[in-house]
Amino acid sequence: MPRKVTKKLQRNIKPDRKYQSVLVQRLINKSMLDGKKLASERMVYAALEQAAKTLKSEEPLEVFEKALKNVSPNFEVKSRRVGGANYQIPFPVQGHRQLHYAFSWLVQSARSRSGIPYEKRLALEIVDAYNETGAAFK
Predict the structure, then answer these.
(1) Residue 12 falls within a domain, yes or no?
(2) Does 34 map to a domain?
(3) pTM of the model
(4) CA distance 127 to 112
């Protein structure tokens, strides 16, 4: 089996119901627990609305896309063996991996906050990523 993921091996993700965005659907899928997609969908929509309201923006999708762009990594380091020594060499990150890391960091940092409901935690993390601060922004 090839190591590279070709186009025909990738799953086609359908856009979400409210914003017709594949990115929002991927966030819903990533934040889903125990297969409860409807609950995850409600929480993500509430978080996007709350984040846009906090930033006094009219379009939640624009806020989310900018936050995602700010969180996405440009480089990653890979180990390369050169003459008996291992070196960490930076490589540019491909587009689909950038998004994978961004979603993972966003959801992981939202889950690590405690004491408030998940919608508020995710909204705060989106606002922090939009402002280039917070745990997800590395």
Answers:
(1) no
(2) yes
(3) 0.86
(4) 16
Q: Torsion-angle region of residue 77: left (phi > 0), alpha (psi -120 to 50) or beta?
A: beta
Tokens 């922090």, located at residue: 128
Q: Decide if 6 is inside a domain.
A: no
Q: Give 6-64 pLDDT, tens digit per residue.
A: 767 777 889 999 999 999 999 999 999 999 999 999 999 999 999 999 999 889 999 99
DSSP for 38-86 reads HHHHHHHHHHHHHHHHHTT-S-HHHHHHHHHHHHS-SEEEEEEEETTEE
Task: Name which of 132, 130, 135 is nearest 114 in CA terms.
Answer: 135
Q: How many domains does the chain have?
A: 1
Note down the domain range covering 83. Answer: 22-130
In terms of Cβ atoms closer than 10 Å to its own Cβ (0-12, 13-18, 19+), residue 21 is: middle
CATH of residue 49: 1.10.455.10
Give yes or no for a contact between 16 and 25, defined as CB atoms under 8 angstroms apart. Answer: yes
HSE-up (13 A, CA, CB side) for residue 87:
8
In a domain, 51, yes or no: yes
